[in-house]
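Hi all, posting the design record for the shared folder.

TITLE: backbone redesign
STEP: 1 of 1
STRUCTURE INPUT:
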């Protein structure tokens, strides 16, 4: 039985399902939710941060505030299971930061949502979850979304 579970959490229904699973299956473990700020994949990011460094700081603070709002939802979900969660924010490529955070927090399991993709989407797009699975030195449990 894992003692510390890391759940990447971005507020999507799939990340909420992953958190629900972690809370229901590992209620005696420490559960940490992680929000990753990634300028390469975040729709609110701008191009040209180097030209306006102050804008980068403002944007980063905005994303961290967004994370705090998401963590309120995560705490409510965990509360439904009588579990409390720890929270963390990382900045960088999502899959890399999830694996790094798992090591830094001492997690011994990652629970992550895996979007259902057609074979073509899988080949063209790839998946953060799949990258985490390939690079994680600890076990990864995936919660799958159906393609319906």
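Okay, here is what came back for every position:
SEQUENCE:
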């Amino acid at each position: 039985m894992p003692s510390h579970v890391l759940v990447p959490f971005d507020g999507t229904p799939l990340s909420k399902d992953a958190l629900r699973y972690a809370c229901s299956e590992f209620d005696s473990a420490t559960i940490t939710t992680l929000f990753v700020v990634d300028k390469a994949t975040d729709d609110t990011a701008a191009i040209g941060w180097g030209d306006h460094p102050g804008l980068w700081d403002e944007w980063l603070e905005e994303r961290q505030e967004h994370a705090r709002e998401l963590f309120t939802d995560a705490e409510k979900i965990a509360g439904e299971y009588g579990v409390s969660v720890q929270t963390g924010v990382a900045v960088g490529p999502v899959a890399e930061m999830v694996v790094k955070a798992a090591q830094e927090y001492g997690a011994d399991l990652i629970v992550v949502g895996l979007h259902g993709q057609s074979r073509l989407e899988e080949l063209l797009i790839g998946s953060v979850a799949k990258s985490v699975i390939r690079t994680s030195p600890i076990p990864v449990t995936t919660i799958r979304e159906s393609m319906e």
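COMMENT: The longest strand covers residues 30-37.
Let me know if anyone wants the other runs.
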